[in-house]
Amino acid sequence: MRKQFIKSLPPLIEAEGARLLRDVHGQGDPTGRKPEEAPGPPAESEYLQRRSTTNVGAS
Predict the structure, then answer these.
(1) Residue 14: CA atoms inside 13 Å, Cβ hemisphere, count?
(2) Is residue 50's pLDDT more than 60?
(3) Average pLDDT over residues 33-44
(4) C-alpha–C-alpha distance, residues 19 and 46, integer Å
């Protein structure tokens, strides 16, 4: 299929043609960077402690 696509393109000239072909067939991120990953869950000690705000048994 790729060869059929290239054959169907009109003749391209010099650097402009090379750039266009590179853009058409370019794969992936041109900078080569991987996507950022989300940070993992916080350590157990970093979780907030739940505290009751009601006084149970107070008179």
Answers:
(1) 1
(2) yes
(3) 75
(4) 51
| Residue-averaged pLDDT of the chain | 66
Residue 15's identity, in one-letter code, is A
Q: Which two tokens stand for residue 40?
A: 């993992």
Distance, in Å, from the CA atom of 9 to the CA atom of 3, rounded to the nearest integer, reads 10
Distance CA 7, CA 5 (A): 5
What average pLDDT does this structure show over 27-47?
70
Distance CA 21, CA 41 (A): 44
Q: How many angstroms separate the Cα of 44 from the Cα of each of 10, 40, 41? A: 62, 12, 9
Q: Specify whether the CB–CB gap between 12 and 20 falls below 8 A.
A: yes
Q: Give the SS3 label for residue 30.
A: coil
Helix (H, G, I), strand (E, B) or coil at 6: helix
